[in-house]
Amino acid sequence: MKRILVMTAVAPERDAVQRGLGHDSRFEFALAGVGIAAAAVNGALELAKAEYDLVIIAGIAGGFVGKAEIGSLVVANEIIAADLGVELLDGFSSLDELGFGSTRVSVDAALAERVTAALQAAGLSAQAGPVLTVATATGTAATAAALAARVPGAAAEAMEGFGIATAAEQRGVPVLEIRAISNAIGPRDRDAWRIGDAFKALEAASSVLAEVL
Ligand SMILES: O=C(O)c1cccc(C(=O)CC[C@H]2O[C@@H](n3cnc4c(=O)[nH]cnc43)[C@H](O)[C@@H]2O)c1
What we know:
single chain; 7 helices
């Protein structure tokens, strides 16, 4: 039997996933905390406790306008630390470009496509696409545009994926990141966040996951 670790930043995200999965002993849960540093540390600690076959990073996220609408789902086909680098007078250089390491963790493309197809077949609004990990949630149109230009096709941003995925990669454990969109990425408008809708989408997606994995 497979052993699957599900990591969410906070408890309400975990609860939404648990409601969707129901009682399925293949899945174990751990909190990552909010942000890339907490996520990396907690991911490494959890992965050291047992041999897992898969890590699922799940939670809410911002969606790039025109790419991922509020209430929809994004399955990462790549996990990218989009602000890990240096700011230049005329742009940005990533750690990769500087020769200091990697800002990308690959996911199993076939798995991401299979999960996306299953979500769509269940009638959910879902797509595969790059999911960015940022240290600072975007709050301006200028930053949203800069990130979209830096990572063509970027669908969503959140704050934990790359941390957990790096820990998983170092242990040779595959990752899946599934995000439910709670808000549009851009000028900060807290009143426009639809966290309840995103939790409902996350729960619905999780009920499909139990069948497809
Ligand atoms: O500003 C607030 O009032 C506020 C209230 C609740 C949550 C937040 C967050 O910033 C949550 C961050 C949390 O959720 C993920 N997330 C959701 N949307 C975004 C986004 O647009 N950009 C980055 N991260 C986002 C993230 O993974 C964190 O775990 C604020």
